[in-house]
Write a structure and sequence with these properties.
Elements: H1 17-34, E1 38-39, E2 45-47, H2 48-55, H3 60-63, E3 68-70, E4 76-79, H4 84-93, E5 103-112, E6 124-133, H5 138-155, E7 160-166, H6 170-185, H7 191-199, H8 210-216, H9 228-243, E8 249-250, E9 262-270, E10 278-284, H10 288-291, E11 299-305, H11 306-315, E12 328-332, H12 335-350, E13 355-357, H13 364-373, E14 378-382, H14 384-389, E15 391-396, E16 402-406, H15 410-417
Parallel strand pairs: 1-5, 7-8, 12-13, 12-14
Antiparallel strand pairs: 2-4, 3-4, 5-6, 6-11, 7-9, 9-10, 10-11, 14-15, 15-16
Helix pairs in contact: 1-5, 1-11, 5-9
Bound molecules: histidyl-adenosine monophosphate (HAM).
Histidyl-adenosine monophosphate (HAM) binds at residues 82-84, 113, 115, 121-122, 125, 127, 129, 131, 257-258, 278-283, 301-303, 305, 307-308.
Amino acid sequence: MNKFAAPKGVSEYFPDRSKYFEFVRETLIDSARRSGYQLIELPVFEDTELFARGVGESTDVVSKEMYTFEDRGGRSITLRPEGTAGVMRSVIEHNLDRGQLPVKVWYSGQFFRAERPQLGRYRQFYQVGIEAIGLQDPEIDAEVISVADRAFKKLGLKNYSLEITSLGDAPTRERYTKDLRTYIATLDLDEATTQRASLNPLRLFDDKRDEVRALMAGAPVLMDYLTQESASHFQKVQECLKDFSIDYSINKRMVRGLDYYTGTAFEFVHNGLGSQSGIGGGGRYDGLMAQLGGSDLSGIGFGLGVDRILLACEAEGVGIPQDFALQLFIVPIGEAAKRRAVVLAQELRVAGFSTDLAYGDRGLKGAMKAADKSGSRFALVLGENEIASGSAELKNMQTGVSSSVTLRTLQEDLRKLL
Ligand code: HAM
């Protein structure tokens, strides 16, 4: 019979690599928690209109990459291509925008974009994201950036950089888009490109074609149009980043792939990943909530690409810390030992030690191989003699050194060694 294969372009994580994935994801989430962000758990599908209005019709994400289908009730549904629009929908629907501000939330899960798959670019991928809603302060911009930066440093990543820009406020954009449209009108562009530019002229900056890039090289630059207020906000964000000792460079030509951005925008880039180098990005979206029918609150957040951050960790040889490994693997030899081992493992688990054991009737060699494969920090061999004497050899799997332990005091001994 033919075997099934996963749909094209999806990423999957299974042992042993899934442990590495889990470590990366948990480190990202931990950093968000430490800055006061709380979990928001949302559906992976939403009303299609939410993304069309929230993310923008001119974006590739909405115009080309959405997984959209009609449900059994004839509604148009889309698998979420990003997290911010859904968070806004939920915050508005549950009136969190009328409660205590700011609303600070984190999320983690699968997102879907029908892109051409390649290493680091998938049709189903994972993000950890945060959103801080209801604060105008430049300090919150720096806080959001610092959550990502702290997580990357905690992971041990070195070869990444942070690019920031300001996309300005509404008056900035109005003056700038007018001049940009005038400039674009002088260019010789094909029908489809002109159409995209008429929806959002900024989109032409992320056109990958050399000829369009060359034409856009002479275009006016948004940062030259910043109002006093926007420029001063951006200045304060930078001062705060310096206070946090976070290195950055200003990228005047950054255009984010989603339409809702205003003011501060940023991207983290890793230099070991080839063309899919963006490991995370985000920014302010001050008009989005009002546009989706909620209060006129500002917001800022990011989405971090867990798949790519994992690849970056692998590229840099980042190791998994010991506390992520199984703590003890018990190897029972013989039937009586097995019965004792099962109970011992259960007691240890209740006491908080992560413990596994060799099932089946493998000999010592096969069982030790299983202990090795489990990635456990310690292994305990339990045979008839050990049960009779009440003491056994506890082997440190990393150093290969064994020490004798009394089974009765195993928990204390383990606690000291771990
Ligand atoms: P985004 O820049 O579209 O922003 O995506 C964030 C990150 O998700 C990217 O930097 C990348 O690491 C990862 N990513 C995106 N597409 C793929 C893909 N096809 N395969 C693998 N990884 C991918 C957003 O999604 C915004 N919602 C972020 C945000 C939150 N802005 C404000 N709040």
